[in-house]
Design brief:
This protein is mainly beta and about 1100 residues long. The chain folds into four domains: about 140 residues, no CATH class; about 260 residues, Collagenase (Catalytic Domain); about 280 residues, TolB, C-terminal domain (Neuraminidase, 6 Propeller), CATH 2.120.10; about 220 residues, no CATH class. Helix content is about 10%, strand content about 35%. It contains eleven helices and 60 strands. The strands form twelve sheets. Strands 1-2-9-8-7-6-5-4-3 form a nine-stranded mixed β-barrel. Strands 48-47-46-45-52-51-50-49 form an eight-stranded antiparallel β-sheet, with no helix packed on it. An eight-stranded antiparallel β-sheet has the order 56-55-54-53-60-59-58-57, with no helix packed on it. The N terminus is likely disordered. It holds the Pfam family Reprolysin_4. InterPro entries: 6-blade_b-propeller_TolB-like, MetalloPept_cat_dom_sf, TSP_type-3_rpt. GO terms for molecular function: calcium ion binding; metallopeptidase activity. Keywords: Signal.
Amino acid sequence: MSVLRARLLWAVFVGGMFAAAAVSADDWQELEAAAKKSVARPAALQSLPVEALQVFQRAGADKSSSAQILNIALQDGRRLTARSRSGSAKSGDGARSWGGVMDGADSRYQAVVTIGKEASFASLLSPQGRFEWMAQGDKGWLIDLGHPSFREPGFADDFMHDAMAHGHGQNEAGARLDRSPRSISRVGGKASTVIDVLFLYTQGFADRYPGSVAHTRIEHLMAVSNQGLANSRVDLALRLVGAEQVAYNDTDDNGIALENLRAAQSVSANVAGLQGVGERRNALGADLVILIRPHDIEVRGSCGIAFLFENRSDQGVNIVSDGFSGWSACPTSTFLHEVGHNLGAEHQNGANSPQAGFGTAYIAPSRFNTMMSSFGTGNPNRFLRLNTFSNPQIRCGGEACGVAGVADNARRVSNNMAAVAAYRAAVSAAPAPDFAAIDDDTDGDGLNDSEDAFPFDARWQTDRDRDGVADPVDAFPGDPNEFSDLDGDGIGDFQDSDRDGDGVVNVLDALPDDATDAVDSDQDRVGDSQDAFPFDRRESGDRDQDGIGDIADSDADGDGVNDLSDSAMDLLVVSAGNDRILRFEGDSGMFANIEVIGDFQPVAFGEYGRLIWDAPRKSLLALAEAGVMRYQRAPISQAQQLLYPSLSAGSPSLTGAFPSGFARDAQDRLYVSVTSNADLSRYDVIAGFALPAGQLNRPQLFAQPTRDVARTPDGRLWTLLRDGTLVEVNAENGSLGLQLPGTSVFNVPDAVDISAMIAGPDGALWFADRAGSRIWRLQPASGARASIVVAAGAGGLRQPGGLAFGPDGRLYVASTGSNQILRFDASAGQLIDVFSRVAPGVMLEPRALAFAPSIRDRYPRDAARQVRPVLGGWWNPQRSGHGLEVARVGDVLAVTWYTYSDDGKPTWYLAAAPFSGSVWQGELRSYRWDGSVATSEVVGSVQLSFSSDRAAEFSWSLPDSSGTERMQPLIVGNSSETQAPTAAWYPPTESGWGISFARQGEIGYALLFFYDSAGAPTWGLAAGAFDPQRMEFDLLQTFGPTRCPGCPGVEDPDNETIGSFRFDLQGSSQGRVSVSASAPGIDWQRSESEFVPLSDSPTDAAGRPRAFDGQ
């Protein structure tokens, strides 16, 4: 199940459509998984992670823009139905926009929909977050804005006034004075004031939205804005009078573009790419002029910028960035936010609004805020924005939606809208858009947003002291200054001088929230009383009490099995397209399993995902857009937030948003480059606290946004800037040394776009050039030009996104455009092979790479356990045709041995027993079937002695024979391990037979354990391409006259088709099995038998490895 479907647990989908034959509907059906793979994403969605998208096909012939219902049907039968409710706007080219609600029994969620000739767009609110819909032609995409790969850059510096731009004050004395408010009581009907808007768009926007799609997209932004005005009860409508392409660039900063757009309002202006704009504005009677371009967080610096109202028509302009830029998303409300500035509305007091008066946003921290709110990236309040201006005359969150004289954006807008509407005389005769207010229930808890104190959190509804902590979990629900009492002494933690109650006052307590300790001598976040090495920052535990810290100890639990391999390596890969880290076998390139999934954690591995194997800490460091994570890899990857996002509640945190690269040195220091701040910051790699020095940890160290940072073996630190410039940085004080301009380093006539930089073992810097699909090498100290080592497209290389040198000295390259890991001879630049062996669709848009030692002891802190055997099939390659199916139920290992009797007929045995350590043994049972019930008897014993997760010695004893042979996991697909729904499955209403199903990447196979006509146990095999919904395979039976236990096994077994097998999966815990097996002595017929898992799957449904026994 994708992340989107997991989030769409909406009761609203269960309801159907209202039967209204006279109302036109736009119907869409989600495509099956196999069909989705062949659908190309439109340009507007190319940078999005695949897992954040669901793909749909138009279900009906009705393509009319007059449709008043949008139906989006999911594969599992649920349905999104948006219905026109609040009026509409129709454009000259036939696009129609309307505000509406989602169908549902008790809850209503807002929808704003625009349907054009070639495309449609919708903005949907739901209890689980925000979603965008885009359709083009007969294909549609549902986009989950709650996906962790998206971050909104924010509106911290998104307005200017003339004093800021040119050093003089306002030229209209009354522009922001407290005048008598206009009426703001509008509920429905057409607005009495109309502001006409001219949109200009660039070639980049036209490429993203070809043909009439660009106009439809702009119409949708207008619709979202008009719905927001109606919700705010502001008597104003925005009317689109033009949407025209201009030749302005897509590469400069939004602030520069804003100044150029203002200059272009003069009819005599000659601004490059904006010639004639003044004449067009006059001809169309446009009060506001907007330039819209595709979002690019590195270039724009914001989602939008506008001039603050000063009653000057040349300042009736703003810049809007649209859509997605990899890991950053600009919301559809950006346009209305910037128009708000054009009308005098400002952010909350303290957010760049030092003289805002009454016209500011309303903020209810941790609960909700209004349209003009502004928060830095990483601040969770940024995701709690209602589509309304602050207005104390209406309600939101169970209180007035503003404060008279303080937070009243609606009044400020109402005061100034007539002046803006008079910037140009109206020319258009088109009717004004007609939208009415909608009171949502955004979180779907049964209480509308107007009365719900937590409109974005279905868990809570009340907060009587308005401190942002819900009454049921507030230790002081009547005190806005307190909400917690850690030591339970009745004194709130803010006032309590010793909040953990350990007798040491907070200011002297190194661990003020930990009552067990107050001293942390080595500052490693572990109190001295719990720290086995209180004066050694690198160590805190000694599990086996051998005097060697667990980090330095190769065998931390003293069980005789080293924690990590001395020779075998894993290759870890950021798969940005589905937001995870994958693990490959470092010698063969075979996909092993998913190491980390970012979907359900506050991390995401996008364009700037980076990896470092932190050998001194025996852990993996990962750079996510939110911060820096540390992963302990055994028994499964467990996350620790080393550095929290900038401005988040967590500590320690980064200096700014969107980290772009990191490097570690031998002194336990971590250097992080931050794109938004154009800086380089230094942190302690053990505890995460900042280590500022000189220019380090200060913003704007560089002239441009940063792309990456690397440390060469000689200790020199190099930062890569966006244009390819390389800057040497002093690691001790941040002073800048050698600076090599990108134009001289990468001196070629065609485009260069460096996506990753690493330091090679040869002391050189190596670069992945995604624009040129090539690899560069530079000895930076020489100041010479870089040379091309891997030529453009060599070996099928497409848009490289990550580099690493392997233990074999070869260069490994993440070919993002072809979803492959390629291995090259680093000296000759020649392709050795396509290293990655993985099923299609598993690795999407690979980027960062890191080699790490393979794990030997899966339980390095538990001397009683060492291995987690691969679940599924095991075999002996020297004796094919028989083997083991290994399953697990908690701490019990269940092993089914499928083999042959002395006459070569297939038979099977079962053993189950608790498992710990590395040796498992159990009683071997044989089964019989009497037509309705299975009986069993003990016929022998078996033992598995594991030397690793992937190797075991199998010993067995039967009445007439015994023996031993080596076993290893069976590999039939492009994966060396197995994934859900791998498990033993059985029918609860007819126990005694069942299947062992295993999935390895794109291949699924089932061992069917059943009975012949005489009731003797027999088995068959069915295998083919895995499908998450239905699999139909031939059923084969194998005969092994020389493969019985104790037989010499000199001949390969024979097989024949004896029937068919079908497995219909219904999620991860239900299925239906149909079997038709007919052969001499065999007649087993079952139709759609209900099956459930008897054992645990090795992964969850998303592919994340599952822990056992709490590990």
